[in-house]
Structures are given as C-alpha cells and as structure tokens.
Design a protein that fits this description.
heterodimer; A: 155 residues; mainly alpha; B: 713 residues
Chain lengths: 155, 713
C-alpha cells in the first residue's frame, strides 16, 4: 500500500465514524418527508446534538452491575468503529485488509458483548431480551457463509 | 548415547521419581517435591521438543530401537515378530510432545496453588503421583514408533487417568457431609465407565494394528509406512474404519461422546484441564498417523471423516448448551472442538486422496488448520479449565449454574481471564480462536472450489461448511450462557449457602498462570504467520513431501484461483492497533464523569430477589432444548398462589435432557453381556461328553488347516 493511500484509508475510516450519526439524521429527515402528511422532519444535525447531550449527562448504572456494564458502550464503539476501517466504501483499499468472514465475526462479537451486558444487571427482562437478540442473528451466520461459498463456485 | 536418548531417559527418570515419591512418603513435602519434579520434567520436555519445532526443518530421527527375540529364529518353525521398544522423534511427535509438556508445566505450577484447597487435602499426594504418570505416558504415546509399544503406552495412560477419575468417588466416600445420591452415583460411575470405554477402544485399535503388522511383516512404524502400497483396498478400508472407531471412542466422536462428560468432571479439576486440553487429542494424533502415514487415503474416507466431525461438533455444542453445570458444559464443548480439528483432517484426507501434483499445498493447508486449532484449543480450553478450577476452589466445589452468578465482582481476575477464554473459543477476532476457525473455513471453501464440477461431493462439503458455521455460532451462544450465568448479575445462592465461599480471588500462583494463558490467546492471534511457519514442517513430515515445508503458506496465497475475489487476509495485529486508538477515543469521551449508581434494576415494581428473578440455565437454553426435554419433576400447576410463594416453590426446577447415545450404548453393552453369558453357559455345561466333543472338533479343524495352508506356515 502506498503511503498516501494509507492516509486515505485512515481518513475513510474516521470519516465513516464521524459521518454515521449524520447519515442517521438524513434518514430520519427523508423518512419524515416521504410520509403522507408532509411532516417537516428533524434537522439533519439532530443526532449530533443528542450525542452531545448524552455525553454531557451522568451515566446511571444499577448497583448489581459489574465493570463489564461500564465498558460495554466503549467496546461496542470500538467494534463498530473497526468495521468502518474494514469495509471498503469510498476507496477500494481499507486499512485492515479483511474478508467477509471477519466482518461477520466482528458483528457477532458486538452482539456477544452486548448480550453479556444484558445479563450483567441481573434484571429479569434485560436477559430475556438479549437472549433472543443474540440467538437469532447467530443462526444467520451459517447462511451467510453458505452464500459466500456459493459465490466462489461459478455454477 | 545420543542427545535425544539422554533427554528421554532424564525425562522418564524425573517423572517416574515424581510418581513414586508421594506414594512412598505421605508427607506434604513429598507432594510439593513431586509437583516440582513434574514441572522440571515438563520444562525439559518442552525445551527439547520445542527446539525441534522452532528449527522449522522436517526432522525424523530414531531415538532408540531395542529388539528382543522371543525365540531363536526358526525354533518353532514359524517367525514371530521380535519384541521391540522403539522411540522416534519427528515434527509431528515433537508438536504433540511440545503441547503436552508445555501445558503440563503450566498445570504443574498452577497445582502448587490449586491443590491447597480443602477438598484436595486428603488426596493431594495421589493426584500429584497420578499426574506425573499421566503426563509421562501421554508423552510416550506420541514418541513411540512401534505398534507394540504404542499399545503399552496407551494402556499406561488409561491406567493413570483411570486412577485420577477415582478422585470424586473417594472424596464422597471420605466426606462427613451427606452427598446427594445422584452425585455419588455419577462419581462412582466415572472410573467404571472409563475402564469399559478405553478397553473397548483398545479392542478396536488392536485389530487394525494386527492387520497392518501382518501386511508389513513387522511392527515398526517405518516398516508399516513403507508397505502401505501393498495393502489391498478392502483390507485398507477395514483398517481405516476400525481405527476410526477405536480412536473415535477415545477422543469422543459422536456416537461415543457420552463418556467424556461422565468421566472427566469426576477427576480433579487441575488435571481435568490437562486431560481434556491435551490428553483427549492423543487419539487425534493416532488418526493422523494411521490415515496419512500407514494407509493410502481413499476418496470416500475423507467425506466420512468430515461428516462424522461436523455431526460431532453440532451434537456436542448442543449438549453443552443444555447442560447445567460448568464442568459438564466444558467437557461437552471440548468434544465440539475435537470435531472442528477432525473436520480439518477430513478435508486434508479428501485432498490427499486425489493424488494430483497441485494437491500437496491444499492438504498442507487443511492439516495446518487442524493443527492450529489443536494448539489454540489447548490454550483457550486450558485457560477456561484453569479458571473453572479457580471457581471450584473459591466456591467450595459449587459449579452448578443455578447456584453461581455475580462472581465478576467477587473475583475480578478469574472473571476477566474466563471472558478472554470465552471470546477466543467463540472465535471472535482479536483472539486466537478466530484464526484457526478462519483457516478451517478457508480450507472448506477451497475444497468447494476444487470440487465444483462434482455436484454430490460439493453438496457434502457445503453441508459440512454450513453445519460447522452453525456450530461456531452455537459456541458463541453456549459461552454467552456460561459467562452470563457464572459471572454476571447477582448470586443465585443464598447468603447461608455462600458461607464457605472465599472472600478473595485465588492466589498469585494460580492467577499468574491464568494470565499467561490469556496472553497466549492474544499472541497466537497476532502472530499467525510465525505459528504457521512452525506447523508447516509438521505437515511435510506427514506427507513425506519436503516441498510443502519450503513453499510457505502466506495469507495472500490462501485466495481463490479465480482472482475475482480480493485476496482474503488476516491482520489481527492491525485490528489491535486500530482498536486501541478507537478505545482511547471512547474512553476519552465516556470516562470523564463517574456514573451514578441506582440500587437495583427495575423488576415490575416488586421487591428484587436475586435468587429467583434472574435468568437461569434452563431459561437460557429453552430455545434450543426442544423435543429432547425431560422434566425431572412434574410441572407445577399454577394454582393462583400469592406471587412470592409461587415463585419460591418452583425456583429449583431443573430441566435435563435425554442422552440417546448413552442409552443406546448401555442397551448394546447390556445385550452383549447377557447373550454372551448365555452362550458361555450353554457351551460350558459341565458335561464331560461335550468337552470331549470340543477337543475332537478342534483337532479336526487344526488338521484341516494344516492340510490346506500347510505350505504357507
């Protein structure tokens, strides 16, 4: 990889992380616009404002939760951030050269981390919801790999 | 005397002294010394075998070959094979020998701390003695190079581990506290089951060994490998099937997996780590020797092996999910990993049977995937077992999920290393499980590409791929359940039950070994190319093809021949760097203010009760239990009791599942014993006239045989 290209890939990753809330805002805006009653929709910058507000506020954590519950949001940010450096979107090259299997496993790791945090509070409902949320996407893994395999085989 | 022989002799002397010492002197110092000797012997062995491995050259040397003639040749008119004791060292045995000794060294250090616990008090000396013998015999199994010594070494290994499985039974016999009937029954069942199973396995192994020996005219491995082309096809297939069953019973391939979760949890948890981390894979070593060196692979063998392997993986991960205690779940899960390892062997066998020039690389790739997973499994499963041993010590042998919970806050070190182990075994990226699972999947994808013109074979490969992927996904679910129930939330046992629990985490000795294994999990993922370059000469020795050692497998080369796909590659080191950067950013954004703690999570407005309101083992595996459910007690009818009372009544409601394989094998053994006894009684009816008839018939048969085949003998 050339030196400039590496900087481009890093920029691509950081840009994706930074632009992601904006994308969400854009989606919300268009969704509102497309509805029949012609709602105006929120500002595209609204998710950034929400994030800023949430980051300024104090976190509330149940006393039953351990350090895992505290680090989970950061871990999730790291994992989804890694995906931004893994999937080529604007340039063909990415900082982390990886294949589909890596992407799926990173998504799986995010689910795993989140599901454990669901059990960590000891609350009756969080665990219930997380169990289902972990179970169904994991079943999809085999079909994605199957698709990958059938793509390689030129029938 | 050569260097290797000296090493073997010193290691043997050290281990056998370590075995005898605590038996002769029942002092505590003798136990400590014995563990110390095990450590010295293991480090010596690891250094010796490791030096062969890191030289990265295919090596195959005979260490010693002693032969004793039973009879002077020709004195009976027949030639008997000489009694022999031969050892050899090649890269394959060095690889397994290194795993055995390096891991034994870790377990030995760990045992210094772990065996201090109260429940090992009475049997400390015995455990240390048996551990020495177990490690030594396991090392011998991978070093011997003739069939006779192989059987002897396997039997010593069986006896040493059989002795260890007596642990729980003896503990319950000596205990002053009352023991639940079911537990006592299971504990007494373990040694018996192990003895029966290992004898059946040896019986299945002896027949193919004899067939091979007859074909080669000798018992040494070299001779057998040299004569493999002379073996006729049906005989070779019979040898393959019998060896598969024999080794499969020992390693727990699916119809025979039921013994592992009965036997292994009954052994002390420290050696449980060694026996399930490495000991059980010795049978996989035998498979490699048999299928690749002693036989010429046939096309259908690989498919059979692959199917058995993926079924093993799926069935056992399912049983791991529905089991209700930590040790049983881990025992089942070890067999799942054996399934993945054997799947790699199966793919290698498929390629090897095609006997084309360009296949050597793919065989090598599949074998490397299999060996890499062997190494990884030893590391992460070893880590998980060490952590389980720690929990076992801390809670006074409470390992049931429905009594655990909330250990994260009590024992943070144990919890952290267990989570590292769980993430690695689930195959998630920053740790080593991902690398070997990725390699196995790549080998399968490549097999699919090579066989694209043959639809039936392709379907088998794709089915195997889908099933393996399902097994990987279920593994993640299984470990989510294990970690969640053991470490997260609140304790599920009452304060009275927790009196015996330790207030602090384990000692520094045990902690350091667990952290060491956790670091290895990371290092094996960050430097995969170095590991592969060590593993490649191993495949070169097996395939007898030095070229596979010199053409390195690089990540870029594991791409598809059609360059339409971008080359898949693996840069976990890079991932790590990026993750550290992002993590720093996240921590900067998040950690500035301390969080506010509220008393409890919301629980529908009623008072929170940690014993009854948390998810249990049964509820978490509910989605998967399905038709195999067997309620142990009738489902309580809701009779509109006040809420609290109703909940507390049904709180210990276990759901267990049927183990059909165990039932079937019990039936089979029962039938065999009954009918053979009946037949024996009928033959041996204490009537002299019948006995005279038997002698007459035998004489006639022998005479006939001499008439027919006299010229051969």
């Amino acid at each position: 990889m050339m030196r400039d290209e590496m900087w481009l890939t890093i920029l691509q990753g950081i840009g994706l992380v930074v632009l992601a809330p904006g994308m969400m805002g854009l989606l919300h805006y268009f969704k509102a616009q497309l509805q029949r009653r012609r709602r105006r929709g929120t500002n595209v910058g609204q998710p950034y404002r929400d994030l800023g507000k949430l980051l300024r506020k104090t976190a509330v954590i149940p006393a039953t939760a351990s350090w895992w519950f505290v680090v989970t949001p950061m871990l999730l940010f790291v994992i989804y951030g890694l995906l931004a450096f893994t999937i080529p979107i604007i340039w063909e090259q990415t900082l982390i050269p990886a294949d589909l299997i890596m992407v799926i496993y990173l998504l799986g790791l995010a689910r795993f981390v989140l599901a454990l945090a669901g059990l960590d509070t000891g609350a009756p409902f969080a665990g219930l919801a997380r169990r289902v949320a972990l179970f169904f996407p994991l079943r999809g893994l085999s079909w994605v790999l199957f698709g990958r395999a059938s793509c390689t085989v030129k029938w | 005397m050569n260097f290797h022989l000296l090493n073997v002799l010193v290691i043997t002397a050290v281990f056998l002294t370590g075995c005898l010492l605590p038996i002769l002197y029942k002092k505590d110092a003798a136990t400590q010394l014995s563990l110390g000797l095990a450590l010295v012997g293991s480090i010596l062995g690891a250094w010796w075998t490791g030096s062969v491995l890191v030289s990265k050259q295919p090596i195959s040397t005979t260490i010693i070959s002693l032969q004793a003639e039973w009879f002077a040749a020709g004195s009976l008119g027949i030639e008997l094979p000489p009694l022999s004791w031969a050892l050899q060292l090649d890269n394959l045995s060095a690889f397994y020998g290194f795993l055995i000794t390096a891991f034994a060294a870790v377990v030995a250090v760990y045992s210094f701390g772990a065996l201090q616990a109260a429940h090992y008090q009475q049997q400390r000396g015995r455990i240390a003695a048996a551990f020495n013998l177990f490690v030594w015999s396991t090392l011998m199994v991978v070093l011997v190079s003739d069939l006779f010594s192989l059987i002897v070494a396997l039997e010593i290994m069986t006896l040493a581990f059989g002795f260890l499985t007596l642990y729980k039974h003896t503990l319950y016999q000596d205990s002053t506290k009352p023991v639940a009937e079911q537990q006592a029954h299971l504990a007494s069942l373990a040694p018996k089951t192990y003895m029966i199973i290992s004898h059946v396995s040896t019986a299945f192994l002896i027949v193919p060994l004899l067939l091979l020996a007859i074909n080669a005219g000798g018992v040494s491995f070299d001779l057998i490998a040299a004569h493999k082309a002379a073996l006729s096809l049906p005989v070779a297939s019979v040898v393959f099937l019998l060896a598969l069953v024999g080794a499969g019973i020992r390693t727990g391939l699916t119809p025979f997996h039921f013994w592992v979760p009965i036997v292994h949890p009954a052994s002390p948890t420290t050696t449980h780590a060694f026996s399930l981390g490495i000991g059980i894979k010795v049978a996989v070593y035998l498979m490699v020797r048999f299928f690749f060196q002693f036989l010429q692979p046939q096309p259908w063998w690989g498919y059979l092996l692959l199917l058995v392997a993926v079924i093993t993986a799926l069935v056992n991960v399912w049983f791991a999910i529905v089991s209700h205690d930590l040790k049983t779940a881990l025992a089942y899960h070890s067999i799942e990993n054996v399934g993945i390892i054997v799947a790699g062997l199966g793919v290698a066998l498929i390629f090897a049977a095609r006997r084309q020039e360009n296949m050597a690389f793919f065989v090598s790739l599949a074998l490397v995937a299999s060996f890499y997973h062997t190494l990884n499994h030893a590391v992460f499963k070893g880590l998980l077992y060490l952590a389980t041993g720690a929990i076992d010590n801390l809670t006074g042998q409470v390992v049931r999920f429905d009594k655990l919970g909330g250990l994260m806050k009590l024992y943070p070190w144990t919890a952290a290393v267990f989570i590292v182990g769980a993430i690695s075994i689930s195959g998630f990226p920053p740790f080593n499980g991902f690398v070997s699972e990725w390699l196995t999947v790549q080998a399968l994808l490549k097999g699919g590409y090579l066989l694209r013109a043959e639809p039936f074979k392709l379907i088998i490969l794709l089915a195997a791929l889908v099933e393996l992927a399902a097994a990987f996904a279920l593994t993640a679910f299984c470990f989510y359940k294990m970690v969640g129930l053991t470490f997260m939330g609140h304790s599920r046992s009452s304060a009275a039950e927790r009196i015996g629990w330790s207030p602090r985490d384990v000692s520094w000795v045990m902690r350091s070994m667990m952290v060491l294994m956790a670091l290895l999990c990371l290092l094996l993922a960050v430097f995969p190319e170095q590991v592969v370059s060590v593993l490649q000469p191993v495949t070169a020795v097996i395939l007898n093809n030095p070229q596979t050692a010199t053409t390195p497998i690089s990540w870029k080369a594991i791409s598809f021949p059609t360059s339409a796909d971008p080359a898949p590659s693996l840069e976990i080191g890079l991932i790590f760097i990026v993750a550290v950067g992002l993590g720093g950013m996240a921590a900067f954004l998040r950690m500035r203010k301390p969080a506010r703690r509220v008393p409890t999570a919301w629980s529908c407005g009623t008072a929170y009760d940690s014993e009854t309101m948390q998810p249990t083992s049964s509820t978490l595996s509910f989605l998967l239990r399905g038709w195999m459910r067997r309620p142990q007690r009738p489902i309580p009818t809701p009779d509109y009791l006040p809420a609290q009372e109703h909940v507390s009544e049904s709180k210990t409601y276990p759901q267990s599942v049927v183990e059909p394989f165990r039932l079937a094998s019990n039936r089979l053994i029962d039938w065999t014993v009954t009918h053979s006894t009946r037949l024996g009684n009928r033959l041996q009816n204490k009537d002299i006239r019948h006995y005279l008839w038997y002698i007459f018939i035998v004489n006639i048969v022998v005479l006939l045989l001499f008439l027919l085949f006299g010229d051969i003998v």
